[in-house]
Amino acid sequence: MTRHGVPVLLGFFLLWVVLDRSATELGSTMGEGGWIVCALVIVTGVAIEVFVFGRTLRGAAVGIGLRPGRRNIVAWAAAGSAAMLLYYPAYSLVTGTPVALRDDWLALLPGLFLQAGIAEEVVFRGFLFHHLRGAWPFWRAATLSAIPFVAVHLLLFATQDFSVALASVLWSLILLFPLSWLFEVSRGSILAPAVVHFAVQGSIKVVAVPGEALPTLAIGWMAVSALVPWLYFRLRPSGSKPA
User: Fold this and answer.
1) pLDDT score at 235
2) Does the predicted model carry a pTM greater than 0.85?
3) Residue 215 CB: number of other CB atoms within 10 A?
4) CA-CA distance, 27 to 21, in Å (whole number)?
5) Is pLDDT above 60 for 241?
6) What is the pLDDT of residue 150?
7) CB of 180 within 8 A of CB of 125?
8) Which residues contact 13 (CB under 8 A, 6 or more apart)?
9) In terms of Cα–Cα distance, which of 72, 69, 50, 71 is closest to 60?
10) Rounded Cα gap, residues 111 and 36, in angstroms
11) How far apart are CA 167 and CA 135, in angstroms?
């Protein structure tokens, strides 16, 4: 891994525990406590960077990806996310199933963005992938980051139906690579991958459909949101290419 391999792994698992346990304790399945979850993750990430890796406070914040994104990359991330969201009206049109937004959808969006977008990207891209990328080429670093990612997500098999847990893990694994690439071409900013992560994970939580239609809607969304982000590999800012 890296010469700091063990501290990186321990730091990652600590960040994951903070993310997972705080969301669980707050009952923040829909981002209701997203601002608290996000704050705890950021504080923990900065503390690890300062006390374990010897960064300054500013360097620690930048190190976990809290820096402005490249505007063109953020714009492409937003445009791609908007295009993916057209799946919902298309699904409604093709199947005749009414697809609406929850009554409280607008109030949920900030918390979902902070939790599913910023907090998760700090853990997986800002901390884990960033440290691995310091020692390995892009594809190797991204692949290595999948190992601890799968390890922490094995808990899903203890709390969910096997097929649901397996689909969730595979879906997230497929997404891991384009999100890592967005982080790469953003030169270490989590903003662009956070936008996509938020759209992918948050949108399915704020739509409302008849109960019997939800599995089909969800399967279609998983397929669309797992495959379309791979088009981001077409983004080739000067000096950036996967190695």
Assistant:
1) 85
2) yes
3) 10
4) 10
5) no
6) 83
7) yes
8) 148, 152
9) 50
10) 9
11) 31
